[in-house]
Automatic annotation (TrEMBL):
InterPro entries: HerA-like, HerA_central, P-loop_NTPase
Domain of life: Bacteria
Pfam family, one: DUF87
Region (Disordered): 573-600
Name the UniProt record assigns to this protein: Putative ATPase
Amino acid sequence: MSIRVGDVIAVHGTKVILKIDEQSSKETLFHGGKKYKGVSIREYLSIQRGFRDIICMVEGEYLDESRIETRNGKPSYVRKVEVRPIGFFDHTGFSQGIKYLPMIQDPAFLMPEERIRSIFDRKSDGEFKIGHMLKEEIAIGLPWKRLFNSHIGIFGNTGSGKSNTLAKLYSVLFDEKLQLIAGKSRFIILDFNGEYGGEQLAPAEHKTVYQLSTLINPDPEDLNARFPLAPQEFWDIETLSLLFQATTNTQRPFLNRVISGKLKYGGNRAALANYAKMKFRQSFCAGEVKPATLDLMRTVARRMNNQAVQDLLAEVTWYRNGRFHCRAFIDPDGNQYAAHIAPTVDTLDIQGLDEFDELVLRVNLQLMSDLNAGYVQFEHIQPLLKRVESSLSSIRKVIVIGDAPQPERLLTVVSLRRCNNEVKKVLPLLFAKHYYNAHKAAVDTPPDRTIHVIVDEAHNILSDQSTRESESWKDYRLEQFEEIIKEGRKFGMFVTIASQRPADISPTIISQLHNFFIHRLVNDRDLYLIDNTISTLDSLSRSLIPGLSQGCCVVTGTAFDLPMVIQVDRLPSNKQPSSEDVDLEKLWNTPANGNEDACS
């Protein structure tokens, strides 16, 4: 038998008013060996209606000063609380939703902790626990099967505990379910701040960490210094367009011709050398050529490390009549070319060049061919040419072309902490496409294995507010990721994003998320987005968001019948992500460089 605390005195639609007994204001009560919470905001009450118990949540309370009752000769105001039905218990258990409403004089009872737990724990196996409910202090198991079979959003201002929640969520998954998911699922973390490169999340034998850096030249023997891409994936129009931010209408078709030329004329180095000799001859004997072709030929000779051809081209002059001169005008008949140019050009050879140098050669040779044929305007392709040459100095430090040198593991962490902004913008989408395309091509329907991409600090790449790039490239970048988050679920690919500023992220991406862990947010734009995007969030939970304490979050979404306010447990220090605040008291009280006089 439970503790009766009051009666229904008014019903206005879905708003129910209770008259509450005086003793119910106590914080904690014990009855029959069970623990009960008193009546306060966000507590749960049971209203008995026939053979059903209608479960309500307290949303407000007040004193009715117009009504005074006398107790032992002392006046006492009538205490009233406003509650909202959220579901009901019958012989089948708890059912969420408003189906039955109470009537006046129906009795209200406190609920023991076990019954409250049964409301939130009923779709879970009871084992997947990351924290406890803030108000009731009850450890609740999350429905992990439904949670990880969806797209997840984790939001919160800096210092709110967002990173700990992300790490706790997946640490518990790997700790509790490792044997179930090994060999069937893979998890990839795009780590912008280098927070997960240590002992976090998973055991070392199940984890691969790529420590990418554009600041130093990588050690060729270090298998984790560069991310491996297969040659067929590198020579792909999607990959090259991503790497070099190719525009859709002119530069992307140009790159497509580069790839087609590689397939048509052979992909080996001897075929490329012959192809270069052919394009040199076409350029010299075109009859009317552009001055830009001379610069392109000089670039090719320099990339092929042929000093003789470089010296020859230094003597070549272009005249306004569209002809080259080298000891004589080079005519279309090829006689002067054969006499003065061909003997030197025939020494062109390719030795010691990697895939990136080959790309530069093919891009320059293709542009020479297109200019001679009148297919393109040089000024339309030149920006792409410059991006290819400038970007490769950074990209070759973080990517290696070839088969993966080590077997795939359960968890892959790609750390971008030591990468420049250009690489941070491009590589995450490249990696997402890398896993998405390979996974989509390999799985059946329904999928028999899954890929889970986790993007920490997602506003770095998914923002539609960024002004550091052109609108066309920003739209292209967002469209790539929007395709994954919209279509990936049917192929068994799921995305988890964590961000300090959800309002900066593309609304399309936010709208496709299924489940949310919302920490403290105070910006009006962020709160407006939450208010208008998450349909499963009730008004009372929403009002708590700006004042949540560190580590506390509102959990809601399709995997949960009702929103919950959870205090997430802190991970052990060696498992925490490297995102802790600096302890200034400790830092400033520590002598600099071990010098005892540094603080005096």
